[in-house]
Amino acid sequence: MNTTSSGVKRLVYKEIVLGDIAKAQAQSNITQSGGGARDLRFNPYTKFVKVFSKMLPTAEAHPTDAGKTVFTGGVRWEDSGGMIHTGKMEFWPPTTARPFEGRIAKIHDLAFFGAQLATLTTSKTDRLFVFIMQDDQGVVYLRYALESALRAGTGGDAGTHAKILACLDANRSDKSSIMGYIDFETSEVYCDADG
Q1: Run of H or E including 132
Q2: Each residue of 35-82: pLDDT tens digit?
Q3: Largest CB tally within 10 Å, which of 65, 106, 110, 139?
Q4: What phi, psi does 48 have (nearest 5°)?
Q5: How many CB atoms neighbour CB 58 within 10 A?
Q6: CB atoms closer than 10 angstroms to residue 31
Q7: How far is Cα of residue 156 from the mean position of the Cα atoms in its chain?
Q8: How far is the CA of 40 from the CAs of 14, 17, 128, 132, 151, in angstroms?
């Protein structure tokens, strides 16, 4: 089984933009007239479902759309005081309105995305990323990382940082947030800029 030197088997990363922060704080439907989904979206679903189905191993029937599956599983994170917290994460299939996007649903219900995210900042010069990592024991951890820390090589191995930085530096539209994954078990690397 392939892992990094720190025992990470799979790693999904996504840039957190201001709209994601509003979603996490349950403030995304500014007009209060509906909408404002509280989710993190991953596009294309066909790529990300391969890795999320391994990280969130419980497959549940979609409550309203027969034949579709929601993947769920436990996650852990450490707060700024060093205390470990746990929660349940759900990866949902595309909707008819967004047929190519999978999503982590109800992020405002996970304190990692709500209260902890509110203490962090993001900018065009030092972007913020969420890391969803599965270790060699199958445990899924959530972490945040700033682009400056990735570029400085802080908190991880150099080979993993190089793969993520290659994605960060790839050509893409300014309107899209950066996302990708590395599956060390299968050696698959995906960056949204790859198409």
Answers
A1: strand 128-135
A2: 456 788 899 999 999 999 999 999 998 888 778 899 999 999 988 788
A3: 110
A4: -70, -25
A5: 13
A6: 7
A7: 17
A8: 9, 10, 14, 12, 24
Strand positions, DSSP E, 40-127: 40-42, 58-61, 69-78, 84-92, 102-104
Give the integer Cα–Cα distance in Å for 184 and 8: 8
DSSP assignment of 18-65: HHHHHHHTT---TTSSS-----EEES-HHHHHHHHHHHS-EEEE-SSS
Could you tell me if 56 and 116 are in contact, meaning their C-beta atoms sit under 8 angstroms apart?
Answer: no
pTM of the model: 0.86
- Residue 189, C-beta contacts closer than 8 angstroms, at least 6 positions apart: 163, 180, 181, 182, 183
Using CA atoms, how far apart are residues 8 and 136, in angstroms rounded to an integer? Answer: 6
pLDDT tens sequence for the chain (195 residues)? 455 557 899 999 998 875 565 555 555 554 443 345 678 889 999 999 999 999 999 999 888 877 889 999 999 998 878 899 999 999 999 988 889 999 998 777 776 766 556 566 666 778 888 899 999 999 999 988 889 889 998 877 888 889 999 999 998 877 778 999 999 999 999 999 987
